[in-house]
Structure formats: C-alpha cells, structure tokens
C-alpha cells in the first residue's frame, strides 16, 4: 500500500512531522489591520458576499457553520453586530506567503498544504523538546506576521493533523500538541470521534459507524487489511498512519492539479444567453490561465448552468454538458469557443440563472503533446492552438493585471459578483497601504 520506513535521510531517527495551521486565517488577516475588531465577532464571506467562509471563535460559538448563507442567519448578524468582510484574496495570498517564508526557516523540508497550512519535517531538528520547538515556531510566526497559528506534531502526517486538531480545540494546550508518545495518542484517540480524522469524510464516517467504529481509537485498532477489504486502500493507509507508520510523504513541490474548476454566483439573475455567455467566457479565461501556469493542457471541457436552490419559489433548472477534445489545448480562444457551443445546447429561455462554471479534465503536461496543425480551425476561423500568443498574453497580464482579455467585452457587467464589504489591499497596492499618523 505504499507505506514503509520514510525516515529522514540524514538522521536515522523516528520521524517527527509538524503541521502548522493558521487560526481562522481570513478573519485573522482582516483583524490584523483593524485592532478595533480584536474582541468583536468577525466573518468573511464568499464571492458575491453569499456564504461564510471564515469565522472567528465568537461567530462559531453562535452556531454559524462554515458555508451557511448570510441571509439564513441575518438575525444573528444584526443581533450580535457581526462585522462582515468580502474575501480579499490578494491580501490573504500575500500574508500566506509571509507565513510560509517564516516556516521555511524552521525545517529543511516544508510542504505548503493549503493557503493557511503547512507540513514541516522536523526529524532530527526539534526532537530534543518538540513542544518547546513548536512554541518557538508559533511565537516566530506571530511576531513576524501577526497571524496566530496552532502547531501539531507526531510521527505521521495524519497524526500531526490530529495533534493540530487538539491544539485548536483545547486552549489549555497553549496551541501546541505533540503526539510522539503512544500513550498520549491513545488517550486522545479515545475521546475524539472518527469523523475528525484527516481523510475521513462524512460518508466514510457513517460507514465506519455502521461497523461499530466511532472513535479514532476504534479505527486505529482495526487491522489495516480489513479496512482495505471493507472500505478502500485510503482508509487502510489512515489506519497505518494512526499507528505511527508513515504512508504519506511530504510533497515539497506541489503536484499539478488534475482538475481545474472556475465558477461564481451572480449578483443578479441572468436571463439572456448573451450575458451568460460573457460570464462563461470570463470563467474560461481564468481557468485557462491556471492551466497554463502549471504548463498543462486539457482534453475535456465541461460546463454547467443553474438557477438558485435557495429560491424554490422561482422556476428551477440546472444542466451540465461536456466534450472530449480532438486535441488537448491550453488556448483560451479554443476553450471559450468550445464552452459557447456547449452553452448553446443547454441554455433555456425563461429562467433566472444564478450560477455557471467551467471544469477541465483529462489534464496532462503540455510537453507531451505536439503542436496542433496550423490548419486545424475552431469557431471564427481561429487556429486550434497558438501557444506563443497565449504566452504573450500571460506576460502582459502578469505585468499589468487584467490588461488584456479574450473574453467578450462591451456588455453590461452588473452580473459580476458583489464585494461590497472589501477591505483595503493593505500590502499589495500602493494606493491602499496602511498610513500611520504620528502627532
């Protein structure tokens, strides 16, 4: 099952993996430049200011779950004066980069797992006193960036995740937990539900419950072969990881995405094909940029359109369509033309569309595909692939963001997602830098 001894090559010692996770990251970024919000309930919203994507502890304590639509808890927002912010991704990405730069100083190998999480290999580095080393990491990140973090340490990535869960849940830990000791692991596992394990989703947790497996300890006590036969190899590997046997290596270089999706909700209902086509073209352009950034091509394009499930009084309609391409591509023009053909096939008059999106599949490295025939044409007599043109477009947009677009222009763009509660881009825009006035 791909597991075994993965000890640090420079020191034959028991492995020590550390997970550093920023606390309520988006909210922490917003509070960083607003000290007046330090003790106030704060939430960050998704695109179109629709749903909660980050909440401080006070908001969580009110029972507001991740992903809940704002309109469903508007009474709580008003009653408790919850301060809401639109997602400010340039700010979050910049602060994330700063956090990761600090973490690089504490370990020879670092895997950035997400915008606010990173695994560190501390084997041979912090094993003399793991908790003291974790506290040192925590203090250094906060001092350099102002972002609070929790630290979990253990012999495997899955156990490090569990340790981090404990560090966040129980304040008496001081935000640092080490599960290197098997007896301490056992004590924690017996009080934590199996659904909290990294990699165990709600459906898998339900299946495990049917088998009489309710706590993490119940799962760790299972023979891995049994879990392989009754569930799948991933659960079997989790069992081994929970027993201190490493099965998941650190990925210092992030793997290419095997699926790219770009979708958004609209600020108003779209009823005309032209508006929906323009929105789809913009999403195709963004997705194509991501595809080229990892130097890949896509062999399958699918799209979807749908009305709002939160407005059952309105006529409901949703449909998706996809197509395999004759030649894999990364050309924005080809992708938009293909998406428009698909859209014409599924669009229906008489509906107020709330959301649409595009998805790429069968993604492969661009290097394994030869240049397409120059006489292979798609809509409007454009060639099926022009990588030099795409490279020039990307270079221009990197230097002058959003300066050039292949997507349709000139139409009413009031459909674009709202971001009415956006904070300044304090660290990424000269016009919005923080100003300090001294008397």
Automatic annotation (TrEMBL):
This is DNA polymerase V, subunit C. The keyword DNA damage applies. Residues 17-201 form the UmuC domain. GO terms for molecular function: damaged DNA binding; DNA-directed DNA polymerase activity. Coiled coil: none annotated. One of its GO terms (biological process) is SOS response. Belongs to the DNA polymerase type-Y family. Pfam families: DUF4113, IMS, IMS_C. Keywords: DNA damage, DNA repair, SOS mutagenesis, SOS response. GO terms for cellular component: cytosol. The keyword DNA repair applies.
């Amino acid at each position: 099952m791909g597991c075994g001894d993965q000890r640090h090559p420079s020191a034959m010692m028991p492995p020590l993996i550390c997970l550093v996770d920023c606390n309520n990251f988006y909210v922490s970024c917003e509070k960083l430049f607003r000290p007046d919000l330090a003790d106030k309930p704060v939430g960050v919203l998704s695109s179109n200011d629709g749903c909660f994507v980050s909440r401080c502890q006070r908001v969580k304590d009110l029972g507001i779950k991740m992903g809940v639509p704002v309109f469903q808890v508007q009474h709580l927002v008003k009653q408790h004066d919850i301060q809401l912010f639109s997602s400010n991704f340039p700010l979050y990405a910049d602060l994330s980069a700063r956090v990761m730069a600090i973490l690089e100083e504490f370990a020879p190998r670092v895997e950035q797992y997400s915008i606010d999480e990173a695994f560190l290999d501390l084997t041979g580095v912090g094993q003399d006193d793991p908790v003291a080393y974790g506290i040192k990491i925590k203090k250094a990140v906060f001092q350099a960036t102002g972002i609070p973090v929790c630290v979990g340490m253990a012999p495997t990535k899955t156990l490090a995740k569990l340790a981090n869960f404990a560090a966040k849940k129980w304040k008496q830990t001081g935000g640092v937990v080490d599960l290197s000791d098997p007896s301490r692991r056992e004590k924690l596992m017996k009080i934590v539900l199996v659904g909290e394990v990294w990699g165990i989703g709600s459906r898998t947790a339900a299946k495990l419950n049917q088998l009489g497996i309710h706590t993490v300890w119940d799962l760790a006590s299972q023979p891995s072969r049994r879990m392989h036969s009754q569930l799948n190899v991933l659960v079997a590997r989790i069992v081994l990881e929970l027993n201190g046997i490493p099965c998941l290596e650190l990925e210092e270089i992030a793997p290419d995405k095997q699926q790219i999706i770009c979708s958004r909700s609209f600020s108003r209902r779209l009823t005309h094909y032209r508006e929906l086509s323009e929105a789809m073209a913009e999403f195709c352009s963004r997705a194509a940029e991501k595809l080229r950034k990892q130097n890949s091509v896509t062999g399958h394009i699918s799209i979807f359109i749908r009305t709002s499930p939160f407005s059952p009084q309105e006529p409901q309609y949703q449909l998706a369509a996809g197509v395999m391409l004759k030649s894999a591509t990364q050309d924005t023009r080809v992708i938009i033309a293909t998406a428009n053909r698909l859209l014409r096939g599924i669009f229906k008059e008489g509906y107020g569309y709330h959301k649409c999106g595009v998805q790429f599949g069968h993604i492969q490295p661009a290097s394994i595909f030869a240049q397409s025939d120059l006489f292979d044409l798609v809509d409007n007599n454009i060639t099926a692939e022009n990588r030099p043109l795409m490279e020039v477009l990307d270079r221009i947009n990197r230097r002058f963001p959003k300066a050039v677009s292949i997507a349709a222009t000139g139409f009413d763009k009031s459909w674009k997602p709202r971001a009415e509660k956006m904070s300044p881009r304090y660290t990424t825009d000269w016009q919005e830098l923080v100003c300090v006035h001294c008397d």
